[in-house]
Predict the 3D structure of the following.
Amino acid sequence: MTFKLLGVVISSDLTCDAHVSYILSECAKRIYCIWNLSKAGVLACDIFIVQLSDLFWSMHVMFGVLDCLTLSKYIERVQKHCLKIIYPKLSYSEALEKSGLSV
């Protein structure tokens, strides 16, 4: 059993699997839109604000409590893919810095 509280999916067993699945499904829905906006010439900062800020915020909040290294690596792979679309000429670390996601 799961429920959503303030944008975080909480399961009855108190694992983060349900929230991670929710975040990844939301990312998958937006990747196509990000790609189209990028190809249309929309500025990277605008794409980031419109599409990714809330997703990446909740992913970074969850990184603090993820106990499964596999799940955190999968989330980071999706994040890396999105940033590569938005900032195609930057390395991953440079894109994190430019987007304000580096910790």
Observations:
- The CA atoms of residues 84 and 91 lie 8 Å apart.
